[in-house]
């Protein structure tokens, strides 16, 4: 009689298992920025080691301002050297940078702030060699109807989310068409098991194969193609890049005609598009907590913080910029850097955990001071 482990060790048909190695970085949630920012040096150094050691290694970052935070802590010469390393790996498409400056909350940010986040994120990512054209918003607490429209405006045709989907149980899949009220459409990848189902895979290599196959079997019924399964090795604020290349090579020798590949969000989206599966459509706001909490209660938490945040959004978008645009038209020099820096400061404290008031008082006091 076969044991449970033996049953788990085989797949009944050939499939491709795509693994994205990543870290979602919350600058101020479990602790204050003064505690999290120094950890970025450890994380980036570890990422560089893996990228240098393994040609097949790929790593995904979810916002550009953590690159700023990392480089700002280094001596000038080292910062230049590390900046060049980032450019090298981005150009090789082995270090993926999301097109956002900050992982802000999409429901509490007005349209101008959402657009600025992408404008500044694109500009900074281009300076480092380019960005992945994927809406990598894997832990944001729900989305407004305009999300596909805004993403399409920046040439982004796919989005990866874990929260907000409320589709009927018999229609649950890992991919849908998401349509805004204006008709804009993107492919929406639904992280049914969140973004950490292979977290720390290399920690216990003896059971890595069983973990991969077990997750693949669990998720295969929800695959839109029946041939591809997406898995995630990462979590949040872990100052390390998991060392899974040797594990992937070993597993590929043992699972027959199926294969495991280290993947990027863009590459996975391209793979699904080429397969051209029939996808259900979801429309409008995605704020449901049907399958995973979308934490809508945070919208009314720490209201004092949200009022100040909204006042800053309005002040920058409706007064500061229009005033300086008028002054520029009359011959004054436009303070590009100064105004961009103001938007960056606001975007930093617009990170979903900060503006949503999800942490201890000290974290949110920092946001007020900034």
The tally of beta strands, per DSSP, is 10
* CATH architecture identity of the largest domain: Alpha-Beta Barrel
**Sheet with most strands:** 5 strands, parallel
The fourth-level CATH homologous superfamily of the largest domain is: Glycoside hydrolase 38, N terminal domain
Q: How many domain modules?
A: 2
Q: How many helices does DSSP assign?
A: 14
User: H/E element string?
Assistant: HEHHEHHEHEHEEEHEHEHEHHHH
* Global geometry: globular
Structural class: alpha/beta
Give the strand content. 5-15%
Q: In angstroms, what separates the terminal alpha carbons? A: 64 Å
The helix content is 40-55%
Low-pLDDT parts are 1-8
Task: Please compute the radius of gyration using only Cα atoms.
Answer: 21 Å
Query: Any idea of the CATH class of the largest domain?
Result: Alpha Beta
The CATH topology of the largest domain is what? 7-stranded beta/alpha barrel
Describe this structure in words.
- With 370 residues, the protein is of the alpha/beta class.
- It has 2 domains: 11-283, Glycoside hydrolase 38, N terminal domain (7-stranded beta/alpha barrel), CATH 3.20.110.10; 299-369, Up-down Bundle (Substrate Binding Domain Of Dnak, Chain:A, Domain 2).
- The protein contains 14 helices and 10 strands.
- The chain has helices at residues 4-8, 33-36, 39-53, 65-72, 76-91, 111-127, 147-153, 208-219, 245-252, 265-275, 303-329, 336-349, 352-355, 361-369, and strands spanning 16-23, 59-61, 95-97, 135-136, 158-161, 175-179, 185-190, 228-233, 259-262, 281-283.
- Strands 1, 2, 3, 8 and 9 form a 5-stranded parallel beta sheet that branches.
- Helix 6 packs across helix 12.
- The protein starts with a helix and ends with a helix.
- The model is unreliable at 1-8 (pLDDT under 50).
């Amino acid at each position: 009689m076969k044991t449970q482990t033996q049953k788990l060790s085989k797949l009944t048909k050939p499939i491709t298992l795509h693994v994205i190695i990543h870290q979602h970085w919350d600058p101020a949630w479990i602790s204050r920025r003064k505690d999290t920012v120094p950890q970025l040096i450890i994380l980036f150094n570890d990422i560089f080691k893996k990228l240098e050691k393994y040609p097949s290694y790929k790593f995904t970052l979810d916002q550009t301002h953590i690159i700023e935070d990392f480089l700002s802590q280094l001596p000038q010469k080292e910062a230049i050297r590390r900046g060049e390393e980032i450019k090298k790996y981005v150009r090789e498409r082995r270090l993926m940078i999301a097109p956002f400056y900050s992982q802000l909350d999409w429901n509490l940010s007005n349209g101008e702030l959402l657009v600025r986040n992408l404008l500044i994120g694109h500009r900074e990512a281009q300076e480092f060699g380019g960005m992945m054209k994927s809406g990598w918003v894997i832990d944001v607490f729900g989305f407004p109807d305009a999300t596909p429209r805004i993403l399409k405006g920046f040439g982004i045709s796919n989005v990866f989310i874990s929260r907000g989907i409320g589709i009927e149980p018999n229609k649950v899949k890992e991919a849908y068409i998401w349509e805004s009220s204006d008709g804009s459409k993107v492919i929406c990848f639904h992280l049914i098991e969140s973004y950490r189902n292979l977290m720390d895979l290399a920690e216990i290599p003896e059971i890595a194969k069983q973990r991969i196959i077990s997750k693949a079997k669990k998720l295969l019924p929800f695959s839109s193609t029946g041939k591809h399964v997406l898995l995630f090795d990462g979590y949040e604020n872990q100052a390390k890049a998991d060392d899974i290349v040797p594990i992937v090579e070993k597993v590929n020798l043992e699972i027959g005609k199926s294969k495991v590949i280290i993947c990027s969000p863009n590459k996975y989206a391209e793979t699904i598009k080429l397969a051209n599966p029939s996808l259900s459509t979801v429309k409008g706001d995605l704020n449901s907590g049907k399958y995973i909490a979308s934490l809508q209660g945070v919208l009314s938490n720490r209201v004092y913080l949200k009022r100040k945040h909204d006042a800053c959004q309005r002040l920058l978008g409706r007064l500061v910029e229009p005033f300086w645009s008028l002054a520029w038209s009359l011959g004054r020099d436009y303070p590009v850097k100064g105004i961009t820096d103001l938007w960056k400061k606001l975007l930093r404290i617009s990170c979903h955990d900060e503006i949503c008031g999800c942490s201890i008082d000290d974290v949110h006091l920092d946001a007020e001071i900034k």
